[in-house]
């Protein structure tokens, strides 16, 4: 769809063009929205991965493992590490897929690198979602589903923010907006670093809280 995107959206309603970032570069706006869509999809994976950790505990499978030689930090950390690496890998695959297909569509090989960067740039935002899930699981596991609010809010801001004329503060409240809408605009290095630091802090807090609370026992 990248090749004909410019012609298809040229006569699109003004509201849709605002979501795509305006009329100056519709194709880039379309690709930016596509990258953001994949970021939300991978965020769903990250939340479901965190919920699977909770399932291991509620099903009684965590307690026997933790009673053995495996410590709490190692147990939870290994789960989170797999989820974090898998999330980054999924975004990389998404970037390669849309980059290669778009490059073939329009005959521009530079799109491969641009779209890989555009999708991989969302890795810290996804990690932040995973970190918040880890913090909730570590301290208040029953409230773990609240992390869906972050994903849902980001989705509303990302797709409907331009139509709702949200204030800058409300827009920047979404971790996905701190990244920047590449390839339509430059990736925010500061935003990426901030998200990475907050994500790491959230994971550290979750692991510290998990070491202190009781684990559901079998039987």
Tally of strands: 0
Q: How many DSSP helices? A: 10
Uncertain spans:
none
The dominant shape is elongated
Structural class by sheet pairing and helices: mainly alpha
Question: Biggest sheet: strands, sense, closure?
Answer: none
Overall mean pLDDT stands at 85
Query: Gyration radius, to the nearest Å?
Result: 20 Å
Name a few traits of the molecule:
219 residues; mainly alpha; elongated
Structure description:
The chain is an all-alpha fold and 219 residues long. The chain has ten helices and no strands. It has helices at 2-10, 14-19, 26-58, 62-67, 72-106, 110-120, 123-139, 147-164, 168-171, 189-212. α3 packs parallel to α7, α3 packs antiparallel against α8 (147-164) and α7 (123-139) runs parallel beside α10 (189-212). The N and C termini lie far apart (55 Å). The mean pLDDT is 85.
TL;DR of this structure?
With 219 residues, the protein is an all-alpha fold.
């Amino acid at each position: 769809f990248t090749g004909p995107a410019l012609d298809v959206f040229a006569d699109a309603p003004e509201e849709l063009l605002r979501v795509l970032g305006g009329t100056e570069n519709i194709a880039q706006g379309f690709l930016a929205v596509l990258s953001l869509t994949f970021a939300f999809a991978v965020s769903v994976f990250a939340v479901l991965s965190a919920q699977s950790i909770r399932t291991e505990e509620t099903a009684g499978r965590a307690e026997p493992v933790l009673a053995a030689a495996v410590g709490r930090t190692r147990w939870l950390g290994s789960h989170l590490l797999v989820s974090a690496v898998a999330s980054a890998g999924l975004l990389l695959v998404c970037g390669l897929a849309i980059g290669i297909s778009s490059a073939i569509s329009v005959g521009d090989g530079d799109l491969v690198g641009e779209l890989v960067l555009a999708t991989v740039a969302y890795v810290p935002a996804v990690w932040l979602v995973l970190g918040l899930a880890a913090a909730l699981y570590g301290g208040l596991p029953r409230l773990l589903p609240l992390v869906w609010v972050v994903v849902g809010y980001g989705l509303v801001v990302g797709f409907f923010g331009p139509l709702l004329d949200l204030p800058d503060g409300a827009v920047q409240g979404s971790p996905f907006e701190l990244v920047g809408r590449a390839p339509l605009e430059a990736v925010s290095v500061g935003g990426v670093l901030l998200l990475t630091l907050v994500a790491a802090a959230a994971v550290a807090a979750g692991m510290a809280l998990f070491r202190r609370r009781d684990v559901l026992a079998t039987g």
